[in-house]
Amino acid sequence: MKLKVKAKASGGVVKVKMLVKHQMETGRRKDKKGALIPALHLTEIMAEYQGSTVFSTEVGPGVSKDPFLAFYFKGAAGESLKISAIDTAGETGVVDVTIK
Amino acid sequence: MKFSRRKFFTTIGKGAACLAVLSSLPSVVWAKWNDSAFNATDLSAAIDAKYPGMAIEDSEKVSLKAPAIAENGAVVPVSVKSDLDNISSISLFVVKNPSPLISTFNLSKHSVADVSIRIRMGTTSEVIALVEADGKLYRATSTVKVTIGGCGG
Q: Domain coordinates of chain B in residue numbers?
């Protein structure tokens, strides 16, 4: 799973913008033969900063393909931020970024 | 649900791979995904499963930003902001989607109540943001007109 994360601090608040490359299959679409394509979507995205979870998201199939997410938390530049994501198949993606 | 032999083994394999990954990353603790709330097919059932027995009131302190008209229902940018204190979570619902609960943002004391996400909308519908603060729910509603649905099928 590919995660793209940008984190920028200004005035004690860090803005995080992130993109996950994921098909976010809803389980409602049908293939050419008319059979349902099984659901395969992200379930959770988590942000860890200085050892604690500062933000977490539970997402369902109602989130767009290749999900984009933006959020803010209180933090400082130069520190590292860990973002992790998991989907319904249990596949995970983790990325560490340095806050700019 | 029927499983073929091949699918059964690939699922087991993926599960094992997942366990291997998880055991190598002991610091990541996944919360339990709220299955019943995400699978609920109507709004009140979804809200009940997510926030059982909580009172809801409309509030001007919750601001929900969504386009008035979305050309493509597959990608609708939505953002929620709030000035309320002690916010523990924010949830987004699309009333007419097959499963109305879109996502829940769990905030910590370090968070700032300002989130943006791109969502799918099957048809023209109301979008509802619920903000949980001090054991109460605060609501903001906005209607988005969708010209092409994004839920497939």
A: 5-146
Cβ–Cβ of B120/A91 closer than 8 Å? no
Is the pLDDT assigned to residue B82 strictly greater than 70?
yes
Q: Please check the confidence at residue B109 and state whether its pLDDT lies above 80.
A: yes
Instruction: Map residue A79 onto helix, strand or coil.
Output: coil
Adjacent-strand bridge partners of B112: A72
Full DSSP string of B65-95: E--SEEEETT-EEEEEEE--SSEEEEEEEET
Question: For residue B31, which residues of chain A lie inside 8 Å, CB to CB?
Answer: 44, 56, 58
Q: Which of B88, B43, B87, B92 is nearest to B61 (CA)?
A: B87
Give residue B150's pLDDT band: very low, low, confident or very high (50, 70, 90): low
A54 to chain B, any CB pair closer than 8 A? The answer is: yes
Domain A3-25+37-98 is found in CATH 3.30.565.10 = no
Contact between A75 and A14 (Cβ < 8 Å): yes
Task: Read off the pTM.
Answer: 0.79
Strand order in the sheet with A68-74: A2-10, A13-21, A68-74, B111-119, B76-82, B62-65
Contact A63 B120 (CB under 8 A): yes
Q: Tell me if B87 sits within 8 A of B105, measured CB to CB.
A: no
Q: Structural domain boundaries of chain A?
A: 3-25+37-98
| Complex confidence, ipTM | 0.87
Domain boundaries B5-146, CATH class: mainly beta
Closest-CA residue of chain A to B79? A70
